[in-house]
Amino acid sequence: MRIRLDRTVCDGFGVCAKHAPGYFSLDDWGYASLIGDGTVAEADRDAVMRALLDCPVHAITEIGQHRFPAPQPPLTDEDDPAERLKTEENEAEWGFTR
Ligand code: SF4
């Protein structure tokens, strides 16, 4: 997992450094800086994700983790289009987001 911190968005709440002090440091005004290059060890993933999710201004983002589903081949005359319907039952396959 890799993260980045947009310091232009940071509003100095300090939540990130509380959750993951090994990855975020705060300056005298409470604004955060990343410690290191943003690479997060697997053992620290939960703490950093907590920091990411709790940042009130979404200044912390995960990078390089989004994968798009492989494109499907075009339908032929023999294919049943109903088999490709996106439903709640197969949402894990096509990435439905609520
Ligand atoms: S939680 Fe967000 S706003 Fe607060 S210091 Fe960290 S990056 Fe900045």
Automatic annotation (TrEMBL):
InterPro entries: Fe-S_cluster_ET. Gene3D superfamilies: 3.30.70.20. Its cofactor is [3Fe-4S] cluster. Residues 66-98 are annotated as: Disordered. SUPFAM superfamilies: 4Fe-4S ferredoxins (SSF54862). Keywords: 3Fe-4S, Electron transport, Iron, Iron-sulfur, Metal-binding, Transport. It comes from the Bacteria. GO terms for molecular function: 3 iron, 4 sulfur cluster binding; metal ion binding. PANTHER family: FERREDOXIN. This is Ferredoxin. It comes from Mycobacterium rhizamassiliense.
